[in-house]
Protein 1
Amino acid sequence: MRRPAARLLVLTLALSLALPAIAQAHAGDAAVPVAGDAATSGIPTPEQVLAIPAGMRAMLQKQVIERSSSREQRLQALVEMIFDRHGLDLQYDANATYTVEQVWQQRRANCLAFTLMFVALAREAGIQARVQEVGQVVSWYQDQDNGVVYSVGHVNAGVEISGRYATVDLDRNVLYDRHGPQPVNRARALAHFYNNRGAERMAEGDLPGARAFFDASVAQDRAFSSVWNNLGVLDSREGDIDAAKRALDRALQLDGRQDAALTNASALYRRLGLDAQANALDRRLQSVQREDPFAQYMLGTQAERAGRLQDAIRYYRQAVRLYDSAHQFHFGLARVYFLAGQLKRADRELTRAQLLGGAPEQARYQAKLDSLARWRAQQQARR
């Protein structure tokens, strides 16, 4: 499966967008026009977003439903149908916030479109399934220019197996926040869809189209704070400062700890000359980030890339203190300890990362430990 460049993932999977990010257009990020797209025939209704086309339904019947009456076996068959070249042969596309029918046409989807499609198909096959959202995630990619992506939100699917729910996620390179995936209702899932579409339109410069989608998101769930933040960004870009202030205030009423809304509201208040209010929001943002392991981790990666190793160590240590079970955080701390020449501490953090990472990470971290041991032996031999 093709993995997206990190810079694309931030735009389409982030549920809230900060003003500086929106101000930068990304050439070539627009989704390929497809039948039923808002650019040609208006905003899809909720029923159109989730409708299973006849061809996909026939494939589901043949490759999944008729193969077994067992829910567990049907679930496995559904996964095979989606990714097998004799089935959908689905490919990841960070821009593809598609309806289920559009996924069928294009054979591409991002995490949100995949989740909506998977849940619709699973339910059609008699499998208990639900849409889930995660408040924050960190994603890792083998993209050396960007490396890590911090997104304020993420969605995936939950499926019931033998009385317990398991998670099906299109993105394997992701670390959830400590709350993990939480189930959401149909209205919130659709609010995510319309909000993502609106963010895509705004990035493309289609401001009227963006507003139409954001309004559709609000119509689904007025308590969805992320869309109010995005409306604030849109109002600001259109020069309606009063409307922008109202939208951002609403976002913060709903979620007073939302990084993007705090950042955007502070910038807006400063533009209005309301420095005292802007400073208060900045202090609140700093307070939120001090207790946010993901924010601390991202500050650590920025400091590491800038060569500020002591700052990076401080940020990574705070991330580990707040979220000790994240093996990725221990690995980041080990890396900067190594760069700073603190080899015993680097060895300790690598060992911790290996223990926490489980079987999938054992080999990678063992290779890092072996490499560190060889390097130390070489250094001692030169003395």
Protein 2
Amino acid sequence: MRVNSLSISPVSSFGKADMKTLAEKYGKSIAQVALAWSWYEGFLPLPKSVHHARILENMDFADIELSLEDAGFIKGLPGLPTAPDPDAVNF
């Protein structure tokens, strides 16, 4: 089983204007686009919130089908944290 780990916050400053443009393109929130991208990249997104409306919003990302171009664009945004592939690291 392969498990990837990456921690990002859609409200951080990394590419916020660009993410807003993509969110508008897909008719979703920045958080939903970030969650869809995480899923697309093979990460298990674990959003958290104490607000009922935001919890429901966070669950509504599965219907976003990011284009290859948009997924690559997000991956190339400055400030995106990186983590080594645990399958490729000797512990």
Protein 3
Amino acid sequence: MAAICAMAQWACAAEAPPDAGTNTATDTATPPSTTDEVIESTRESVRSTVEWLASGIDKRFGDKPFSDGGKVSDGQIGLSFLNREGHSSHANVRFNARLRLPNLSKIPYLFVGNDDARDVVTDQPDHRPLKDVVRERNTTNNSFFAGLGLLMAKSIDVRLGFRGGLKPYAQARLRHGWQITDYDWLEARETLFYTIQDRAGSTTALEFRHAFAPDLALRWLNATTITQHVPHPAWNSSLGLFKSFGQEKVFGVELQHSGSEDNNKVTTNDIGLVTSWEQPLHKNVLGQIQLGHFWSKTSLMSERDGQWAFGATVLLEF
């Protein structure tokens, strides 16, 4: 979801909110509504829980209190509802946050979350609800993960962590971007990773963006993953057009293609057309709905099977 907002921010300048000073009416204090109170209470509860978890981890490494420089940043928790024609519906809860611990001040950051373990380990770009539907995931694929991040250079970072069941993994990521013209941006990313199951693996991602107008942009995103355990590529590709309507309201249309191979034969192959709409629902709350139609095949000889899919996500930032 954040990728759509990033596209809109890159393609156009954000609209400035009305200046409160220009309002000639007499300002009166408006008491918070019940909705405001519920959302803020939920946000504070989630943040307090993550801070409590961070404080508990931190005190194991020293005597400094968490209040002495401790910080929770980039916190997000989301609830997604996913449905694909011919399959059962399911809901998904995901969260991510970065932690700064006073007793581990020499470590740039720690991370914690609950998400699709496979995507976390292989560092797949652009997590999107309908991609979950295409790949027929369910909530059992999600697991808790945590670890530490090291910034080796401006464009290189290393992650060491654990995912569900205390399964260790390691990542090293190199990222570099080029501003080709005032309207074109190219970014390349190479992630090397290691797990006990996969052994060594890599994900190569390439993203191209072009701004047609201040409020209209195109994005082409490609990613390929290969491992020693499965030495055949799995790929994801999307070509999308995004239109901003200001105030973080974005409409998108994307052509998506994903697949994998086994022994040089295509085992899964999905082509889909997806429309999406994203907008703020409230302060610190974003909403997104997606509707798509996909044509799938499970072998070279099978016919493509058309199916509708729907996804809805509510994201709370804390």
